[in-house]
Write a structure and sequence with these properties.
The complex is a heterodimer of chains A (114) and B (114). With 114 residues, chain A is mainly β. Chain A is built from no helices and eleven strands. In chain A, the strands form two sheets. In chain A, strands 2, 4, 5, 6, 9, 10 and 11 form a seven-stranded mixed sheet that branches. In chain A, strands 1-3-8-7 form a four-stranded antiparallel sheet, with no helix packed on it. Chain B is an all-beta fold. Classes of the chains: A mainly beta (114), B mainly beta (114).
Chain lengths: 114, 114
């Protein structure tokens, strides 16, 4: 079984530029999560999708962050414009359905904003 | 709001020895789930062990076991017969029974010395 795929693995941009991350969850997994992991901290949930609908985006900075999962499969997370404090690892995770206890994580995208 | 605290930023252990990682949490809920996740340097986070709060018996997975003290809101992870491959960041996480949102602690970096 293929795991959660993310790309790119690394990205360096200047502040005020835009960036997009891509996630392909495990096949058949209806629930998809995006987390932000700042250095020295645990992951923090940004947004949760159930199929192509948003379940929870209460911690997503909506003035600069956006995410979509148009066909209920893969997802993109965008930051525009980026700030220095957005430097972090962005993790994608998926589960078969919301009540499943185990979330499967991707390798993450490390973003550096200079 | 629920919080998860890991008070040990770094721990070290010698190969074949035993180490215990601490975690405390705060919640007003009576039913919930607790997890330990391992994040090796490659950053792909994997589930190590989980505990349902309604179960009194401590969870065990091979060399990994937990000491769950519900009244004290404590959830420590014991790694027996430590191996070099156990070196990683370990995150304690909480999930309420009516949500699939994970709340993570700040992590403990475990070093294993030969």
């Amino acid at each position: 079984e293929a795991g959660v795929a993310q790309s790119p693995r690394y990205k360096i941009i200047e502040k005020r530029q835009s960036v997009a991350f891509w996630c392909n969850p495990i096949s058949g997994h209806a629930t998809l999560y995006w987390y932000q992991q700042i250095l020295g901290q645990g992951p923090k949930l940004l947004i949760q999708f159930q199929n192509n609908g948003v379940v929870d985006d209460s911690q997503l900075p909506k003035d600069r962050f956006s995410a979509e999962r148009l066909k209920g499969v893969d997802s993109t997370l965008k930051i525009q414009p980026a700030k220095l404090e957005d430097s972090a690892v962005y993790l994608c995770a998926s589960t078969l359905h919301p009540t499943q206890e185990m979330q499967y994580f991707g390798p993450g995208t490390r973003l550096t904003v200079t | 709001a629920q919080t998860v605290t890991q008070s040990q930023p770094e721990m070290s252990v010698q190969e074949a020895e035993t180490v215990t990682l601490s975690c405390t949490y705060d919640t007003s809920e009576s039913d919930y789930y607790l997890f330990w996740y391992k994040q090796p340097p490659s950053r792909q986070m994997i589930l190590v062990i989980r505990q349902e709060a309604y179960k009194q018996q401590n969870a065990t997975e091979n060399r990994f076991s937990v000491n769950f003290q519900k009244a004290a809101k404590s959830f420590s992870l014991k790694i027996s017969d430590s191996q070099l491959g156990d070196a990683a960041m370990y995150f304690c996480a909480y999930r309420g029974s009516n949500t699939d949102k994970l709340i993570f602690g700040t992590g403990t970096r475990l070093q294993v010395f030969p």
